[in-house]
Amino acid sequence: MEKDSVLNSNLAEYSTSEQVLNEHSKLVMTTITAPSSQKKIPYTVFDCSSHSGLYYPQNICYNNPEDLSSRWSSGVCNQTQYITLRFDSPAIARTILFGKYHESHVCNLKEFKVYGGMNLEDMTEILHQGLRNDNQPEEFPLRHAANNMAFPVQYIKIVPLTTFGEKFNYSIWYIEFCGVTDKDIIQKVVADNQKLKEIETVRLCLKHFRQRNMMDIFRGLQERTGVKLEEPLLTRLHKVLVVDGDYETSENIIKDIYQQGLFDEYANNTKYIPNWRRIYSSSTDSNNAPGPRGGHQMCIDIERGKVYLLGGWDGKQDLSDFWYFDIQKEKWNLLSPDTCQDGGPSARSCHKICFDPTSRSIFVLGRYVESHANTDGNLDSDFYRYNVDKDKWTLISTNTAAEGGPQLIYDHEMCVDPNTNSIYVFGGRVVVGGSTVHSYSGLFVYLINSNIWKLLRGDTPSSGTLGEHYQNSRRNLGNPSTTAATATTAPLPRSSAQTPSGQPQLKSRAGHSMLFDPTTRDLYIFAGQRIKDFLADIYRFAVDTDDLIEITEDYSKNSGPDPGYTQRTTIDTTKRELYVFSGYMRTTSYDVVKNSLWVYNITQNKWEKVYQNEGRGREYWHKMQNKEPCPRFAHQMVYDSNSKRQYIFGGNPGDSKDVSRRLNDFWELKLTKTKPKDIMRRSVFLLRTQKLREMHRQAELEQQNNPVKLVSTKTKQALEYLRSYVSPVLDEKCEEELDEFQRLCACLCLADHSIDTKQSFISQNMFKVPSSKVSHPDLSDIIFSGRTRLYNSVIGFMPQNIKEPEESLVDIIKI
């Protein structure tokens, strides 16, 4: 009794985890985030995997950036290396600072992980990051709370993963921690964590006893502790569904759950579903649509619902035609068969265009020129502007390089900042007369109103071998069958803007993506190719503060797409998402044109693969020509943020048998997610199929008791229920539901007098009560288990904070 009273006193104040968290949030979370609470946390070195020479682990306690020996260096460079630190007393560690040597060093940690815990047997990952290879100290925030509950740590384990120099030992020069060390706060945090653990332990026991139909123990434990397993609405659903088998009332509760918005969170977190639609022009003139091409350019006027298309390469020659697509009428319109004749740009490909909604103008910059044919040609970088309302072309500049802008470039990126009337241009290969030397353009801004160019970042020169794509004629636009060559990278022949101290170097590249978010005033730059390297990095450039941040060096290692270039990317600034479609990709063993669509969540720094089709061959894609687009690169894609639709046109399919083949198919892509109403329907389908299973079992029992009868009454009732109640809520597009429905149909239709009672789906002893509505004590265990699984499936669509714990008591017991 004494132990019981202690348990009751511990939990009497709190009956739910949410109450503990709310109280903790009010008293603690606001305190530990206050600047006045942050103190330097003293520590000692507890352990390490190894060390080399005089580079002892204790060296990291001292910040001596001028001393080459003032560091810990591992004895080997494998990924079993670590160093463990111990705080003098438990603390809430909020930041970790890495000091560095006074110049870059090959042993600096390119990637590492940090773990924390109160003991060495229970450590949690609290950081996964990488350092810049420079001389500037770097501070990182540490994860110090989970589910709004702060947690203290006394041990920190740092695990190096890679260095900047291949096969070099790991080095850490200096470590410093800041956080909360106040004993009263730490005691409060420890006490709140203990309360939460006690409540969660009781909830796990309650879940275990209820799932195993030990209801007397379940009720006794709940009455004694006062701990709630879940929200009352779900407790009622369990009683009505699992215990009573009242499916009609259960459906009404499901509708209440839907109306209260409890399916919304699950729906928002479901994966996107791609919906493709091939668009055929409504014009009766078969020639009144753009022909096949790659390397063309598109932009969109969202307000007027028009998609503009200019130029490209049809496999034999550059094009200079100019079109717009009326989204509402689904009709292509030819603005000009030859823009050069109208005072506009000459035929070109691999250029860039962008639409400025403020001036209602389209800007055109760059073009591809064959390296072997450009010695005597015009290599000046012309710059054009097209006023869409006046249908008028203006030559802004005959040579932007002479005015402080980029040289003649191709495969660059260009986007508009409508708030400041600015255009940002980044990357692309510089056309160098009569040379295979690689030069890449930097990051420029063009001020539209004042007609001024500014260089924001110059390229970082490097050298290497020309990779399999750019060594070939750009006319092939990436055909893998062409022959390899070699080249070097040359610096820009003009002055380069210096990278501010402490910021990463932005490598110029070609075939990359760049998007502008006007709400946050940031440019996002990623992927592309630089000589032989396919890139998979992501940068964010704050245009107002001139700050550059490397978000990730290689997103392919973080569940993202393979490195590549010529992928096409759009942005939804409201959802904070980037949409990346197809492109020329580099896998671990070979280069390939992939047919895939990825979504990158900017806020969460998280990738999601929405769609991929590994189908190969012309015959396969001929069958799929009206269902979804074939693999391609050098295509174009624009996004209508109002209708949330993507528009994709043309490209190069990478056909090794016909290298000049280009595409002219036009597609609309709409990404959708499961809606809360769909989840309600799915839940009702699960309920009705479970009821049908029970009706089938009753029919089997009746058939066993009366084997002479051809079709039992209960079989007829089950078949009628299947037709009238299950079929109307079936989603025939869902393979899982369709398979289950067909299996149930087969079971019912084959339930005749020839059934073998010994091999029956369920024997007489396994089903004691013929009614689906039974009192709890007499409920069959097998029926109870089936309904419990059903209940778990339904509550799986609901927020975690209102339902029973996901963990199982059995799973946490280690034997």
UniProtKB/TrEMBL annotation:
Which SUPFAM superfamilies does the annotation name? Galactose oxidase, central domain, Galactose-binding domain-like, Kelch motif
Task: Write out the entry's keywords from A to Z.
Answer: Kelch repeat, Repeat
Q: Where is the segment annotated Disordered?
A: 464-511
Q: Which domain of life is it from?
A: Eukaryota
Output the Gene3D superfamilies linked to this UniProt entry: Galactose-binding domain-like, Kelch-type beta propeller
Q: Which residues form the signal peptide?
A: none
Q: What is this protein called?
A: Muskelin N-terminus-domain-containing protein
Species per Swiss-Prot/TrEMBL record: Phycomyces blakesleeanus
Q: Identify the taxonomic lineage of the organism of origin.
A: Eukaryota, Fungi, Fungi incertae sedis, Mucoromycota, Mucoromycotina
